[in-house]
Amino acid sequence: MLDSTRVINGTYGYVYYDGRWLTNIKSAEANVEITKEEIKRSGTRWTAHKVTGLSGSGTITGYKVTSEFVELIGQIADDSKGTFATELILKLEDPESYGAYRVRLKGVTFDKIPLMHFEVGSIVEEELPFNFTGYELMDKLVAE
After folding, report:
1. Which pLDDT does position 99 carry in this prediction?
2. Looking at residue 4, what is its pLDDT?
3. Is 141 exposed, middle or buried (0-12, 13-18, 19+ CB in 10 A)?
4. What pLDDT is attached to residue 50?
5. Residue 143 per-residue DSSP state
6. Residue 82 carries which DSSP code?
7. Which residues of the chain have pLDDT under 70?
8. Given this model, what pLDDT does residue 85 score?
9. Beta-strand (E) ranges in 1-144?
10. Cβ neighbours for 98, distance < 8 A, ≥ 6 positions apart
11. What is the distance between the terminal CA atoms of the chain, rounded to a whole angstrom?
12. pLDDT of amino acid 53
């Protein structure tokens, strides 16, 4: 039977960049899409699938506090510099869960330079979509 106290509360989610907790982040998502090719086989109507690739993508969203990521991501606009590539660590650590769950995202590159976005009367938020080229499960959740 499900122990509802063990269900993770997203309030205890964290994003770390360069060893620092990004306290302004209010949501994070990372997924790996599995690319497959269809394989038609004789003697059956069933279509099989062959995995041919992986693609990682995600988004972090938070309150606009500094222009740090605009500057880092924006270095690509300088013809003498390259793409900003980094690692992120995403963590869930609800005190009632079966421990901490941490994922390290490798080869993170961002999809856009968030120069400006605001709406009068509203808190300014910043959305940073990204891609990544690998991951590592650093801490896993295991039922006791």
Report:
1. 78
2. 84
3. middle
4. 97
5. -
6. -
7. none
8. 96
9. 13-17, 20-21, 25-40, 47-63, 85-92, 101-110, 125-132, 134-139
10. 6, 141, 142, 143, 144
11. 13
12. 98
Q: Which residue bears the tokens 């869960």?
A: 97
Q: Which parts of the chain fold into alpha helices (H)?
A: 68-73
The residues that bridge with 92 in the sheet, in sequence order, are 13, 101
Over its C-alpha atoms, the chain yields an Rg (Å, rounded) of 19
Is 103 in contact with 90 (CB distance < 8 Å)? Answer: yes
Q: pLDDT value at position 9?
A: 80
Domain boundaries, the chain: 9-139
Hey, which CATH number is domain 9-139, 2.40.160, 2.30.110, 1.10.10, 2.60.40? 2.30.110
Antiparallel, parallel or unpaired: β 47-63 and 125-132: antiparallel
pLDDT of 123: 95
